[in-house]
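[Automated response] Your request has been received and processed.

Submitted sequence:
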Amino acid sequence: MRFALAAILCAVACCQPVRAQVAPSTILRIEVTNVVRYVDDAADVTTIATNLSATTAIPIRNFRRAVLIGDIVAVNGQPAKGTII
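Generated structure:
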């Protein structure tokens, strides 16, 4: 019994809390130009992609879908080329 108690006390005395290693945070700054928003505002789904001219936007009522597409010109201040969707 004494041996078990001595083993437990040694284990408790030798164990220290270990802290996790946390990587430093990094800020990613992306500069974008020429952003165009395509809004899914058609009330009649049969008319989607049938009119080649620009349509007038319908005022927002509740929730609706939109896709934004733009050109990436810089990442963290360094020139870059790409597309953001």
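Summary generated for your ticket: Strands lie at 30-39, 66-75, 78-84. The helical segments are 2-14.
If you did not submit this request, please reply to this message.
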